[in-house]
Structures are given as C-alpha cells and as structure tokens.
Design brief:
Helix 5 packs parallel to helix 7. By secondary structure, the chain is of the alpha/beta class. A five-stranded mixed sheet has the order 3-2-1-4-5, with helices on both faces. The chain has helices at residues 33-36, 44-66, 85-102, 111-122, 162-172, 179-186, 212-227, 234-260, 275-288, 304-316; strands at residues 2-7, 12-19, 23-31, 75-81, 106-110, 130-135, 140-147, 150-156, 264-268, 291-293. Strand 7 (140-147) and strand 8 (150-156) form a beta hairpin. It folds into two domains: 2-116 and 301-316, Nucleotidyltransferase, domain 5, CATH 3.30.420; 128-299, ATPase, nucleotide binding domain (Nucleotidyltransferase, domain 5, 2-Layer Sandwich). The longest helix has 27 residues, at 234-260. The mean pLDDT is 94.
C-alpha cells in the first residue's frame, strides 16, 4: 500500500511516499529555519504563508523522486493535530483535496504518533508493545505503545517541553534558532559539572517532568554573569545544561520501563538527536538489560515519512476521515481520529 503523506505542523513543509508503513520511497523536507532565525523562533503567520507557497512544488518533487504515479497512490495522509493551526490547515486541506481528486481514503494523523512511527522506518523489526519517550520542542512525555494505534500516556511535562527549554536557553546565549542542535555542538569539550542546574520532580507523579525551573536557572545564570561582567565558560554551560535535561529524562524513563515491565524501549522527537541524551540512554539501557531503539537522525525532526508510517497502521484500524475533518492545535496523543463515514 502506497501512502502520500503531508507534514506541515510547524516550520517544515514535507511530503513523502511510504509503502506498507515501513519503506520510504521518497521524503522531501523544505525547512523554513532561515526565515524564522531572525525572530528567535517560529512566527506562525510566516510559517503558514511559506507552507502555501511550498506545498505544491514539494509534493511534485516527492512524487518525482518516488517514481510513483498519482494513480498509484492508495491513500493520502496529513498531520491534523497538534501544531500551529494555520500551518496544519495548509497540509490538511491539500491532503484532503488530493485524496478527493484521486478518490482514495484520507487519513488524519496525530503528529506525535508520527514521531513514534519514525522508529518503524529505522527498525523494520520493531513492533509494539514498547515504552517510548517522546521529546521535542512542543512535547515531552512517556507513553506506552500497546499497539500501533493503542497509546497510553504514562507521564508528561507539567510546563515547558525539553526542546523549548533548549531553544529559549540558546536564544539567551545568543546562539540563535533552533537552539537544541547549537547547544549540542557547543557542549563538545565542555565540563558538564561546572555549573549546577536543577532537576525538578513532581510530587505524587514520579513520571512527570518540569523544565521551567531549569530554563529559568539557565537564563538567570547568563543574565547575572552579564550584569557582573563575569565571562561564562560557554561550552561548559551547554554541557551542564544538556546533562541536566538528560538527568531529568533518562532515569525517569528507565524507571517507568522497569515498573511497567518493558524490556523494549524507544525514543523519538527532535530532542532525541541530542548526543548527550542518546549516549545516556544507551548506557542506561545496557545496564538495565533493555533493548533501545533510536531513530535515524534524519527521522528525528519533523518529516512526512513518519506521518506515512503511522498512517498505514491507522488505515488498517479504520481511522480514515471524511472531507469535513478539521485541524486541531492541541489534541491528546491517546485520542484517535475515528472514521465518520
């Protein structure tokens, strides 16, 4: 089954053709990073307008690279939630129009479910059940993937996502947007014990996260050093901050896996590309005798291939939608899009 997938939830316009949920025939990603860098973050209005301009040429290039004719497409999928509402609507409406023109089913996809499915593209042998840490700019949570479309939240952030904390700290450091990758590069050679950052816990909710205090501590450190005209060891700030994020995520995730009885664990989302986090996860999984799945770096950030992977399993479960399907800026990951036909 060949699915044309569309992803426009934030600042990447992407289209892919994925076969049977595992084989990527093409995956075209057009980033808007350069357009948003001057503002220190994504500007929703600019993102939406750029998606409108890019969606048709991106889909055309996607079909060209896949060597698949439009008539050979069996279904169309698009991110429908969560994300920037204007950006989502561009991809969703294009996807619905394309499915209508081809008289094929339309499959709305939860964006974070797509991130989980990125692991299916990297590991053809990976099958549920497993425990997954989803960590990105907008989402940080631990979920049980009981089946491809049966997902249960075990814990989540109470405030900022880990990726947001990276981006805000990088902006105050003057590194620009996006911040996660720049802090990761800056941290090389830094002393991760030089600066002490907090690792918050949530009373009564051992698997929930909080990153607002960490972000505030980093910003205060930077501002205080500027006011006192005391130079900071920036690589060590980056290394210490990365360690604090990893120390918040990894032990909690591994403890959840032990308590829930999972020996198979996975990670997904843009922050899963962080080198410190990947190393700590690998070390921790080895010590606990767990099998860890990490997506290829090219599938960590937003892309349509992951949407196409999840779409295959949603289709098998009957989760298609009529052309009245709307986009949603927020939506719990454990709520499916159900067929209304």
């Amino acid at each position: 089954m060949k699915i044309l997938a569309i992803e426009t939830s934030c600042d990447e316009t992407s289209a892919a053709v994925v076969e049977d949920g595992r084989r990527v025939l093409s995956n075209v990603v057009l980033s808007q990073i350069d357009m948003h860098a001057d503002y220190g973050g994504v500007v929703p209005e600019i993102a939406s307008r750029q998606h409108v301009e890019a969606i048709i040429p991106v889909v055309k290039e996607c079909l060209k690279q896949s060597c698949v004719k439009k008539e050979e497409i069996d279904a169309v999928a698009a991110s429908a939630a969560p994300g920037l509402i204007g950006a989502l609507l561009v991809g969703l409406n294009f996807g619905k129009s394309f499915s209508y023109a081809l008289s094929v089913p339309f499959i709305p996809i939860h964006h974070v479910r797509g991130h989980i499915a990125a692991n299916y593209l990297t590991y053809p042998d990976l099958k549920p059940p497993f425990l997954c840490l989803t960590v990105s700019g907008g989402h940080t949570m631990i979920v049980e993937v009981k089946d491809y479309t049966d997902i249960l939240v075990v814990g989540s952030t109470r405030d900022d996502a880990a990726g947001e904390a990276f981006d805000k700290t990088a902006r105050v450091l003057g590194l620009g947007y996006p911040g996660g990758a720049k802090i990761d590069r800056l941290s090389v050679g830094g002393d991760d014990k030089k600066y002490k950052f907090p690792c918050a816990t949530v009373d009564g909710s051992p698997f929930d996260f909080s990153f607002s205090g960490l972000k505030t501590a980093a910003i205060n450190l930077i501002h205080n050093s500027e006011q006192k005209k005391e130079p900071l060891d920036l690589p060590s700030v980056a290394a210490s901050f990365s360690k604090a994020v990893s120390d918040s995520l990894v032990p909690r995730f591994l403890e959840a896996a032990k308590i829930k009885g999972y020996k198979t664990i996975a990670v997904c989302g843009g922050v899963s590309a962080n080198s410190r986090l990947r190393a700590d996860l690998e070390n921790g999984a080895n010590k606990e005798g767990m099998k860890l799945y990490l997506p290829e770096l090219k599938f960590c950030s937003d892309n349509a291939a992951m949407i196409g992977a999840q779409a295959y399993y949603e289709f098998l479960d009957g989760n298609t939608a009529p052309l009245s399907q709307n986009a949603e800026a927020t939506k719990p990951i454990d709520e499916s899009f159900y067929s209304l036909e």
